[in-house]
Write a structure and sequence with these properties.
Layout: E1 5-10, H1 19-28, E2 32-37, H2 47-54, E3 59-60, H3 66-79, E4 82-88, H4 90-98, H5 104-111, E5 116-120, H6 124-128, H7 130-141, E6 145-146, E7 150-153, E8 159-163, H8 167-180, E9 190-195, E10 200-201, E11 207-208, H9 215-226, E12 230-235, E13 246-250, H10 254-265, E14 270-273, E15 280-282, E16 301-303, H11 307-313, E17 321-328, H12 332-342, E18 347-352, E19 364-370, E20 377-383, H13 384-400
Parallel strand pairs: 1-2, 1-4, 2-3, 4-5, 5-6, 9-12, 9-14, 12-13, 14-17, 17-18
Antiparallel strand pairs: 7-8, 10-11, 15-16, 18-19, 19-20
Bound molecules: cytidine-5'-triphosphate (CTP).
Amino acid sequence: MTSPKCVFGVTGGIAAAKASLAASMLVKACVDVHVIMTKSACEFVTPLTYRTITANPVTVDMFAEPDEWNVKHVSLAQSADVFVVAPATANLIGKVASGIADDMLTTTIMATRAPVIIVPAMNTGMYTNPIVQRNIATLTDLGYRFVGPECGRLACGDTGPGRMAEPERIVEYVLHVLEAQGRADLAGLKVVVNAGPTREAIDPIRFISNRSSGKMGYAVAGAAAARGARVTLVSGPVSLSRPEGCEIVAVESAEQMLEATVAAAADADIVVATAAVADYTPAHYSESKLKKGDGELSLELARTGDILARLGADRTSSPRVLVGFAAETDDLLANAQAKLARKNLDMIVANRIGGDDSPFGSDSNSVVILRPGHNPEPIGPASKLHIAHAILDRAISVLVD
Ligand code: CTP
């Protein structure tokens, strides 16, 4: 399999060095990275850094003659599967928005048909300047994608929006866009994903929870956003960063997860329930800390509501596609099939747990997708990101069936 190709533009800002981490992470994810540096980028970081990281020649404007751009920019532009500019200065954004192509980077951006991801980094005053905001709005309308900037303390000492998005955030989005292969097949649709564990409080200090990391659900949400959907991600407590382009509703208990998911699902086209919702919650919450005694302690537990079963009970209204997960230690397919029927789902993603197969916290997974009228489809071992797109492919086929 040939590696996808990313053309990675670097402009002149203090974040030009940090952006090399994103380039390095892309290389580790088997992406073929080709860097173009502007003249001012070379004031902050040397081309040698990027050449060493990517093992590819780095194109630097400083030495390039206009004749050379004419040939090279077309070949790089045409061969790109994705184009990233990190960091992107106000100057670069202004030039692209105005159709100015006067160096290797801007001419290549102009010539490419690949999705272009712009990662702004600049002083807060510059970022909030209406001219910059207008340029970003113009480019967004034209289909250019933006990651960040984040808020925080900037190199200039100011605090506010303008700091370049963290390399992990950039890379995760780039990988989603690559996996989506330019498809915007969820544009105009609303996708709701719930993810992560729930916490059922026993007293102000203790709770009952589970091992879910939320990674699978976050991958589905990020994948749907990369394919153009409006995404609401109802998330239990996890330590993951917000996937690009998703609205997050943070919840803690199973009851809150149910309320938030049902509310978001009311006008959704697709619901994917990846959350590991507690089936039981303490029947009596203690306002004061429970003190230990000499003997054993029994906790009375009450059943929680089943979110999927509730959504599946009335299939005449939204959502049009209802997808569940089944985490099983035994009889994977039989148990998953029973949940598919019992909860009235269009699809269930069966996940074996236990033995050597622990998907918890892992970046990869092996699943079997079950759909009424279709043979079971094993997928993986593959990255959760790849599995997320495979789930969405099948959800879309349910929509068009
Ligand atoms: N689920 C839900 N609400 C619950 C429990 C589970 O919506 N209260 C959803 C999960 O998000 C998942 C699917 O139902 O998509 C299956 O969850 P799982 O924990 O595998 O199964 P349960 O239905 O809880 O059954 P059991 O625990 O007996 O296996």
